[in-house]
Amino acid sequence: MNLNSNIPSGPLASKWERHKFDMKLVNPANKRKFEVLVVGSGLAGASAAATLAELGYKVKCFCYQDSPRRAHSIAAQGGINAAKNYQNDGDSVHRLFYDTIKGGDFRAREANVHRLAEVSRQIIDQCVAQGVPFAREYSGYLSNRSFGGAQVSRTFYARGQTGQQLLLGAYQALSRQIGLGNVQMFSRTEMQDLVLVDGHAKGVVVRNLVSGEISSHSGDAVILATGGYCPVFYLSTNAVGCNVTATYRAYKRGAAFANPCYTQIHPTCIPVSGEHQSKLTLMSESLRNDGRVWVPKKQGDARKSCDIPETERDYFLERKYPSFGNLAPRDIASRAAKEVCDEGRGVGPGGLGVFLDFEDSINRLGENSVQERYGNLFNMYERITGENAYKQPMRIFPAPHYTMGGLWVDYNLMSSIPGLFVLGEANFSDHGANRLGASALMQGLADGYFVIPYTIGHYFASHDQFKPSTSHAAFKSAEDEVNTKISQLLSIKGNRSIRSMHWELGRLVWEKCGMARDKEGLANAIERIPQLREEFWQNVSVPGSANELNVALEQASRVSDFMEFGELLCRDAHNRDESCGGHFRTEVPNSRR
Amino acid sequence: MNLTLKIWRQKNADDAGEFVTYQAKDVSPDMSFLEMLDVVNEGLTSKGDAPIAFDSDCREGICGTCSLVINGTPHGGQKATTACQLHMRHFKDGESITIEPWRARPFPVIRDLIVNRQAFDKVIQSGGYVSASTGGNPDANAIPVSKHNADTAMDAAACIGCGACVAACKNASAMLFVSAKVSHLRHTPPRSTRERSTCPFDG
Ligand SMILES: Cc1cc2nc3c(=O)[nH]c(=O)nc-3n(C[C@H](O)[C@H](O)[C@H](O)COP(=O)(O)OP(=O)(O)OC[C@H]3O[C@@H](n4cnc5c(N)ncnc54)[C@H](O)[C@@H]3O)c2cc1C
Ligand code: SF4
Ligand code: FES
Question: Residue A522's CB: how many other CB atoms inside 10 A?
């Protein structure tokens, strides 16, 4: 496969400026002749759909939730980075660029990341103009905090609901265009396949999740902004509907998938409480500013935390990484927690947890100050666990959180299939092998508001325009394949629940290809996943029919893709005889550090 | 613990619908309400029966997708807690629980516990936004906004668009949802005078 990144020539810092000038334009009157299909309405999809419609393109936008406002971006808590340097603390475009490249263990494409850092500043202007209620100082100016170990304060935030507020900004911009008739919105509609005509992406086949109807939409280009694939691990901090279906089916149509094994495990999540668990809840990383992480020194110590004297506690992050202490980078903190649990020193159910203790901070700052800083998180913790973290330490454990891997894209965010563009978490472009905190929101909005509106015009202007009719044979055969797959799923009529199959796959991928990986374990996973897939296709039970709202069918369809994609992920990890960012191979722990 | 569930089942929008009783056995107090339903559903699907359809996505109280009326109260009885964040430790062994969808004419039931909430999207489409197209906006710090206003805007903007207010209101009115959006937009940087005078949201 020929992968040309199409990076413009010239010095790094002026590539984007120059490229913007060199790219061909579509004149305003002609824009309405082009129709763009945007799959996904998260930060990346909603910002792209709204902006393209503002420019005059005809847009159709699809999402599987009942409203575009519910895309998983809504759940992001901590904040969004931008090189505004409002704090006068030494930040700059170059520093944000540098930090992102370094954070990604030098695997991200420099030209893309530099552009990201450049447009980060416009994102904040855009969001404020939309009415995003970012936190402010008494002066009336915007407030910033430092996040994820950055040495400057460049993170903008809206309490603990930054993703929600940014998404509502983009959703409202999208709603305005829907109201104006420039965007046709298809919610509760799931993409099932990508359609190629003469080698170009020209349409999608979708399923209406209410009626079950399968239909085709054709366009001049297709944008996938369908988010990440963490639920391949079954349990993760993602919404339960997050899936790999759109990107995986595009992969099967020939789009290159890059770095699937680069996944990020977040250290501060609420531990698993039992087999019934459906998702894991992230507790903001900011807690590590004031909480101390520890486990008992003794194996299998079943005493209550308050009965374990200071001398018998192991503050393992402070001990192992004295310069970072409790603020050690995500992957390091996650692995350190795994190690102490593997040694039998974990706490809570199944020994899969470590303490995050606020006692010292409460003594130092007073309960009120701690409450002011983290009150909502302590409440959330109590809602889920029934425990009061002012009185006893929280228990936390790492969980899959973000997927750096995704469909390969060039500098223009176009995949290896011409006319197929990929934005947001669904692409692989900007975070290399690991992602810095508060950078995913930035990337999603950069892609949608400020990159694709330029690059898609260049694609239109440099190719002959043709929008096939949906009666074209390629659509018919894609629809047939989708229908066949659905009837196959419905006809298995086995006796295993979809959830139990997903659980089994997820636990396997988590064990063998989670925080730490080795050749033998990965080889084992690569052997077992096909067996599991076989079992799925023989023995899963998918009740109901195709022509109705059928939640079982929706889940089965997504899990069937995870059953294949899980293997791809493990194969990628198996082939990489190195450790790098979020991919840690125990045989070669220091190959990059 | 063991529970008796009285759940609204309705095949589609045209079906009359009815309550069906299920037994939930060995429910752990650590389960969320939706995880309890997942387990009931697992039992149903592995027997080849249609699972109880309910909406959910984030399962952490922020997306506003889950929408159950539990014992007559939207999202159940815990303060500031959506159904997905409600945990079974608040119920007692042997209890009987009634589970219904949002009951409001603007939110028609489309299956079991799932309703159509597009009415909310229409409200926002009719003016719940600032007309600031992408690009060309002034520097974010050009217009200071008092901390008080920013905080007030955020209080209102925290609405998750779940629709529980409509389900709770005897008249199925969306006043709370609409006023939250009005209050959010009114306390952020000034919208243009023209937009203020023409937009229904600015009255
Ligand atoms: C709990 C949590 C906290 C986070 N906190 C932060 C943070 O503080 N800062 C930060 O920068 N990042 C954070 N992240 C990461 C960040 O939120 C995401 O990476 C980002 O929001 C992804 O945006 P997106 O637009 O690419 O995808 P999403 O928001 O996931 O949107 C995907 C869209 O695609 C649609 N879709 C998916 N599949 C299909 C299909 N087959 N057919 C049709 N539509 C489909 C969905 O309906 C949805 O509209 C956090 C993530 C999580 C899970
Ligand atoms: S105002 Fe209504 S829609 Fe918004 S969060 Fe409250 S109950 Fe839900
Ligand atoms: S599932 Fe998101 S709020 Fe309940």
Answer: 22
Looking at the structure, do residues A500 and A430 belong to the same domain, yes or no?
A: yes
Asked if A514 and A233 touch (Cβ cutoff 8 Å), the reply is yes
- Whether residue A171 lies inside any domain: the answer is yes
User: For residue A510, is it within any domain?
Assistant: yes
Q: Which domain holds residue A382?
A: 268-398
Q: Is A364 a catalytic residue?
A: no
Question: Are A429 and A563 in the same domain?
Answer: yes
A222 and A284, same domain (yes or no): no
Q: Residues of B numbered 67-86 whose beta carbons fall under 8 angstroms of chain A's beta carbons: which are they?
A: 78, 80-81, 85
Given the candidates 3.40.50.300, 3.10.20.30, 3.40.50.1110, 3.30.70.20, the CATH classification of the domain at B3-115 is 3.10.20.30
ipTM of the complex: 0.96
CATH code at position A410:
3.50.50.60
Global pTM reads 0.97
Q: Rounded to whole angstroms, how far apart are CA atoms A412 and B20?
A: 54
Ligand 3, CB within 6 Å, residue ranges? B 56-59, 61-66, 82, 84
Q: Considering its fold, how many domains does chain A have in total?
A: 2
Q: Report the distance separating Cα A472 and Cα B117, nearest Å.
A: 35
Give the C-alpha separation, A444 to A425, whole Å. 7
Helices (H), A150-200: 162-179
Report d(CA B86, CA B150) in Å as an integer: 30
CATH code: domain of residue A380: 3.90.700.10
Q: Which helix (H) or strand (E) holds A265?
A: strand A263-269
Domain range annotation of chain B = 3-115, 118-131+140-198
| A454: enclosing H helix or E strand | helix A452-462
- Taking CA–CA distances from A241, the nearest residue in chain B reads B57
In a domain, A125, yes or no: no
The answer to whether residue A317 is domain-embedded is: yes
Write the residue with the smallest CA distance to atom 5 of ligand 2. Answer: B159
Q: Which of A510, A537, A508 is nearest to A525 (CA)?
A: A508
pLDDT tens, N- to C-terminus, chain A (593 residues): 889 999 999 999 999 999 999 999 999 999 999 999 999 999 999 999 999 999 999 999 999 999 999 999 999 998 999 999 999 999 999 999 999 999 999 999 999 999 999 999 999 999 999 999 999 999 999 999 888 768 899 999 999 899 999 999 999 999 999 999 999 999 999 999 999 999 999 999 999 999 999 999 999 999 999 999 999 999 999 999 999 999 999 999 999 999 999 999 999 999 999 899 999 999 988 898 899 999 999 999 989 999 999 999 999 999 999 988 998 888 889 999 999 999 999 999 889 999 999 999 999 999 999 998 888 889 999 999 999 999 999 999 999 999 999 999 999 999 999 999 999 999 998 999 999 999 999 999 999 999 999 999 999 999 988 899 999 999 999 999 999 999 999 999 999 999 999 999 999 999 999 999 999 999 999 999 999 999 999 999 999 999 999 999 999 999 999 999 999 999 999 999 999 999 999 999 876 54
